[in-house]
Specification:
Elements (H helix, E strand, L loop, with lengths): L1 H6 L2 H31 L4 H38 L3 H36 L7 H11 L3 H15 L4 H25 L3 H24 L17 H36 L1 H37 L3 H28 L1 H5 L6 H14 L6 H13 L3 H26 L4 H30 L5
Helix pairs in contact: 2-7, 2-10, 3-4, 3-5, 3-6, 3-9, 3-10, 4-5, 4-6, 4-9, 5-8, 6-7, 6-8, 7-8, 9-10, 9-15, 10-11, 10-13, 10-14, 11-14, 14-15, 14-16, 15-16
Length: 448
């Protein structure tokens, strides 16, 4: 595999690694959507969707924690493989594993004890709290499966085994899609059934990941001798993983800010609309994320091997492809918003409101394909601080203040709240474009 990363024709290699990751992300997208589609068909579907949407804020934070150690450790391991230091690469993976186990147990205990208080803080109302709590109580029990399954899957992808990494998500996605209607409708468990199906699917995916990393096929071996906590290694993992952690966990915080403002200006139906808009954003974001993850092993390995021209070429091709996808995706959603949102709801008022808001919400995503590659490239090359800065800039400096400021400046209620998203997306991508060009000239000089 190392020979492929270094010498195989770039476009062929990039697509062979990226397509499985994209397909895996699409499966993840589909089963997340299927959850909400099924829930939306319940008699009280609008409130149930709002409740699950509130849980999505917490799940984003959990995703941030697993990315802290998964995406923080995987590029470091790949760089060490490029330097032909497999022993150190395996120590990095072992430390990431132990950190994921510890953090998953702590997270589960916090959610079980304080789940109701957290949901109320995140914008639950008396009407939506029962649905949110029903989902969260069960989902939190599977935290360890989620964190280990997804977090350690990055160490499969970083070795160039993108097909096996794809199988991880395919297993979870297909099982979840099959179990959803059984638990929700046949067993009449409603929202709790969706959570139960998710936990079971995550547990099976986790078993697959650990089986692969402990087996003969993996170049990096998950062994007890590599699981001794090394705080020097952990410090490096945290330094690189903090940016993806921040980007994912602050998605939860953003959803809280959106949900509270939408509840204030539009009530429970606006919170339900926000959940649908988030699903639409995933349709745009997850395939680009999959492509960026496919490019990561090529970037990290060749940067470690000091093959800077190959790194530059990979970045160039990746930007063109992801930018084309974001432009086409946004145009389609702008033209047919009602077609998309009607998948998640049968309430006419909810469909109309969601369709109107969608056109505003996704507009700034039209050039975010480029920004996705910028962010992934910073992390893949070991410059997590730069990735963190632009995540902080977009969400903390721009987006969250605008969510609260715009409704006070413009007399448009929920429409003013949603307008914060495209403004932040456009400003971030434009700013990052200039910064990334300077970064490439400085860090990837062929004469360096």
């Amino acid at each position: 595999m190392n020979e492929r990363l270094e010498n195989e024709k770039l476009t062929k290699l990039l697509f062979s690694l990226a397509l499985p990751s994209i397909l895996a992300q699409l499966v993840t997208l589909i089963y997340n959507m299927v959850d909400r589609i099924y829930i939306g068909q319940l008699a009280d579907g609008a409130l149930a969707i709002a409740g699950v949407g509130l849980c999505a804020s917490i799940i984003s934070i959990i995703t941030g924690i697993l990315q802290l150690f998964g995406r923080g450790g995987a590029p470091l391991s790949s760089i060490k493989m490029g330097e032909h230091d497999d022993e150190e690469a395996q120590k990095i993976m072992g430390n990431s594993f132990i950190c994921l186990v510890i953090s998953s147990i702590i997270t589960m205990l916090i959610l079980e004890v304080f789940g109701e208080d957290i949901l109320m803080l995140f914008g639950a109302s008396e009407n939506t709290l029962p649905y949110a709590l029903s989902y969260l109580r069960i989902y939190s029990l599977g935290t360890v499966f989620c964190m280990l399954g997804v977090g350690m899957n990055f160490f499969i992808n970083t070795q160039g085994y993108a097909k096996f990494g794809m199988i991880t998500l395919l297993i979870g996605g297909i099982i979840n899609i099959i179990l959803d209607p059984i638990f929700i409708f046949v067993l009449d468990m409603n929202v709790a059934g969706a959570a139960t199906a998710t936990v079971i699917s995550q547990a099976i995916s986790c078993i697959w990941v650990l089986f692969f990393l402990c087996g003969k096929r993996s170049n990096l071996k998950l062994r007890r001798k590599y699981m001794k906590l090394d705080f020097g290694i952990i410090k490096k993992i945290l330094g690189l993983g903090f940016s993806p952690f921040f980007m994912s966990s602050t998605e939860g915080i953003l959803q809280v800010a959106f949900n509270r403002q939408m509840l204030f200006f539009g009530g429970d139906i606006a919170v339900s609309a926000m959940t649908i808009l988030h699903s639409m954003q995933q349709i745009l974001f997850l395939p680009m994320e999959g492509f960026a993850q496919g490019a990561q092993p090529i970037l990290s390995y060749n940067y470690g091997a000091k093959n800077f021209q190959r790194v530059k070429d990979t970045i160039s091709v990746s930007i063109k492809i992801c930018l084309a996808y974001s432009v086409i995706g946004v145009i389609i959603m702008e033209l047919f918003p009602t077609t998309f949102v009607s998948l998640f709801a049968k309430d006419a008022e909810l469909i109309e409101l969601s369709g109107q808001l969608l056109r505003i919400y996704v507009f700034g995503f039209i050039i975010m394909g480029a920004n996705s590659i910028y962010q992934q490239s910073y992390t893949s090359l070991g410059f997590g601080a730069r990735s963190f800065f632009f995540a902080f800039y977009r969400k903390i400096i721009l987006l969250i203040p605008l969510i609260y400021l715009l409704p006070n400046l413009l007399p448009y209620g929920v429409y003013a709240v949603i307008l914060a998203e495209p403004i932040s997306d456009l400003l971030t991508t434009i700013t990052n474009t200039f910064a990334f060009r300077f970064f490439l000239k400085k860090q990837l000089s062929i004469d360096k």
